[in-house]
Amino acid sequence: MGACNEMNRILDKKRLSETVYSMRVEAPLIARERKAGQFIILQLCEDFGERIPLTVADADPAEGSITIIFQAVGKTTRKLAGMDVGDKIAALVGPLGTPTHIENFGTVVCVGGGIGVAPLHPIAQAMKAAGNTVIIIMGARNKELLILEDEMRAIADELIICTDDGSVGRKCLVTEPLKELCEQNPKPDLAVAIGPPVMMKFCAATTRPYAVPTQVSLNTIMVDGTGMCGGCRVTVGNETKFVCVDGPEFDGHLVDFDNMMNRLNSYKKQETTDHQCKVGTKAGEPA
Q1: What is the pLDDT of residues 178-219, one digit of tens each?
Q2: Residue 25's closest CA among 84, 69, 61, 68?
Q3: Residues 19-63 pLDDT 10s
Q4: Which residues are bridge partners to 43 per DSSP?
Q5: How far apart are CA 105 and CA 197, in angstroms?
Q6: Domains of the chain
Q7: Fewest CB atoms less than 10 Å from the CB: which of 1, 73, 203, 254?
Q8: Is the dihedral angle over the CA atoms 101, 96, 246, 138 positive or is it negative?
Q9: H-only helix segments in the chain
Q10: CB of 201 within 8 A of CB of 178?
């Protein structure tokens, strides 16, 4: 497992859209061990600071680097977006989480919404390498927010692009072509959906009547990434699960998305304001 004893130096930085960035970071141990579906947790401050989970979008074991893709929406991601090539990330831990189960299922439809296309990329790549026919549906609000189109096109047997405003591809939600594929004979053998919680919720609702197995990847609030803090707990099939160790992937037909979204919304104020994480403050010390 990689940690802050690695250099964690930023090797490359690209701006993919107005608020989305790609960074290639020096992390040789993580690059060597990482599998599709796994993630890292990073912290920008050495003492206190928010810990955020980010999927490993790609890795180059020969170079000893991993690629992370993120959207600058909160204090930490905005600060990360302001870093440059040569800067070092204070702490980078991974790979974490359970890898995606990869095998030759037959036909796999991969659905990515917005920034969710980034964690979908290594999964689609691995599914294709395992011999599956891979159909990729990508959705975004508009053409400018669409990311990794060329990379996904190189993988896909069929690529379907959807935008809310119709500026590129079909003017529809990703659930529309997903339903059309489920209605075909034969229908897909597996669906993988990654994106905003509400998108994954409705993708699972779309595939459920057709009994198409559906995997979703959850990105919840995390602190330690070991299952100890309980911040990432979700309800799956009426059981409590921890995304950091039991996931991040679960059966989409069993996830209680409403409960998960309520928990995510509980910390919106803290995510967007200049706060200091007090995890680790000793008992009796002023916060």
Answers
A1: 999 999 999 999 999 999 999 999 999 999 999 999 999 988
A2: 68
A3: 899 999 999 999 999 999 999 988 887 666 788 888 899 999 999
A4: 51, 91
A5: 25
A6: 10-96 (2.40.30.10), 107-217 (3.40.50.80)
A7: 1
A8: negative
A9: 28-33, 75-81, 117-129, 149-155, 175-182, 197-207, 243-246, 257-265, 268-272
A10: no
Letter for the amino acid at 12?
Answer: D
Q: Which two tokens stand for residue 67?
A: 């690629």
Tokens of 286: 């002023």
Q: Which amino acid is at 158?
A: E
Residue 254, C-beta contacts closer than 8 angstroms, at least 6 positions apart: 236, 237
**In the block, which residue shows the tokens 């204090």?**
75
Q: Do residues 133 and 155 lie in contact, with contact meaning Cβ atoms separated by under 8 Å?
A: no
pTM of the entire predicted model: 0.84
Rounded CA-CA distance 210/213 in Å is 9
Q: If we measure between CA atoms, which residue out of 211, 220, 191, 185 comes closest to residue 203? A: 191
Pull the structure tokens for residue 11.
Answer: 């090797």
- The tokens 């959807």 sit on which residue? 162
**Which pair of structure tokens corresponds to residue 165?**
């405003």
